[in-house]
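Bug report

Summary: structure tokens for 4-hydroxy-3-methylbut-2-enyl diphosphate reductase differ between web form and batch submission.
Environment: batch mode, default settings.
Steps: 1) Submit the sequence below via batch. 2) Compare with the web form result.

Sequence submitted:
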Amino acid sequence: MKKFDIPEHYRSSIISTIKELRKIRDPRKKDFTSTELDFGPVKFYIARHFGFCYGVENAIEIAYKTVEENPGKRIFLLSEMIHNPGVNADLKRQGINFIMDTEGNHYVQWEKITKDDIVLIPAFGTTIEIEKKLIEMGIPIKQYDTTCPFVEKVWNRAYELGDKEYTVIIHGKHNHEETRATFSHSVRNAKSVIVRDIKETETLAKIILGIFPKEDFYKIFDGKYSEDFNVEKDLEKVGVVNQTTMLASETQEIADLLKRTMIDKHGEQSIKDHFADTRDTLCYATNDNQSATYGLLETNADLAIVVGGYNSSNTSHIVELLEEKFPTYFINNADKILSEKLISHFNFHSKEEITTGNFLPTNEPVKIVLTSGASCPDAYVDEVLNRILSFYENTRSLEEVIESFEQ
């Protein structure tokens, strides 16, 4: 896979070493068990796969090269490059201005932007309407489009489904930038509906089977379906694509449910005429991160720490999985570990930051699961690890721990 030129301060000395050693041992990535780093009084269980993915590194490289190659030019980003506050703050310090927030509210109005300015499209992509707006303004977009290729793969698959007269079911959060973009690209060639989760899909299945009245569709999915949607006609043939940061297992669960629904309605002999297999659109990084998280669940850790942006969808799903077994603390950097007693962390259920005391148990060795989301630099994870280590005496040196891992 391509190596990207990203800022040195995002790279790490600890995590990068572990990742490289695991890659040498398991180049085909068949082993998703965690890596144990034994520092004596504290042990860390490191996920097999986490951190910056291909799409994120590609976007960061393009952004920094754009700044370097265009001195004196005004450079804008449509919205957050990725869902990580540290990375976005770094881009602002480089002189990049943000046009909108993640909800689409403007910081900078369109009339303030000229054809001489540069506008970067973030890794999530953008809507066709905004692409057309930029082109009409005379702003080139191809050179400064950082859309993840795996997101574009989803768009292409949606277009293909439309060619075959399938309705596209999009598994995603309807207000997320990527899902808004995917919906925009999908509706140009196909009827489309957004479902948030398996629960909403169960409701959709009951509408398809006539268990719930068709009128319920327009109320329940208000704002989430394409124009002139006809429930009776447009739910006869379906295929599923997803917001790439959603849980891959839930996307598959949604697809399996809709396939069973079509079998119940039309019979197994004609299923290919009513359901399209779209497993090939699932993002490799989302799949690998999820598999690695299941590997972490096999440990007997005392707690888990997940590092990432609080509005990061893929990171919140990692938290969701880990908190099924461990007390889990979702932080965006090492500064949130206030002391050996206190940690400030994000509760993604209530959408608020809270402070918890005595988060580290008194028993030794303390066993900690440590991982991050796909938009988090490995250096941030290093900082968290070192912050925790600073609370303990007589820890083994990093060199000693790495050496024992290499044996």
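Above is the batch result. After comparison, the two runs are identical; trailing whitespace caused the diff. The chain is about 40% helix and 15% strand. Residues 207 and 214 are 6 Å apart (CA to CA).
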